[in-house]
Amino acid sequence: MYHLPTGRLHVINGTAARVWELCDGTRSLSAIAAELGQAFSQPPLEATVRTEVGSFVAELVNATFLEVLP
Asked: pTM for the whole thing?
């Protein structure tokens, strides 16, 4: 991911890229975690997925890639 305002490049894995795609302003973190969890053949614990998605989204917000809508 390229951050145009700062000129920084952030390398993310495939799962993180899918989270980024799902952050379209229409889904909640819970909905993103649920959709992501369904993609695994052996689903991890739902709470674990929610925690990981929340952490990654927080990183995106802190790096100003995303804004949290009210």
From this structure: 0.80
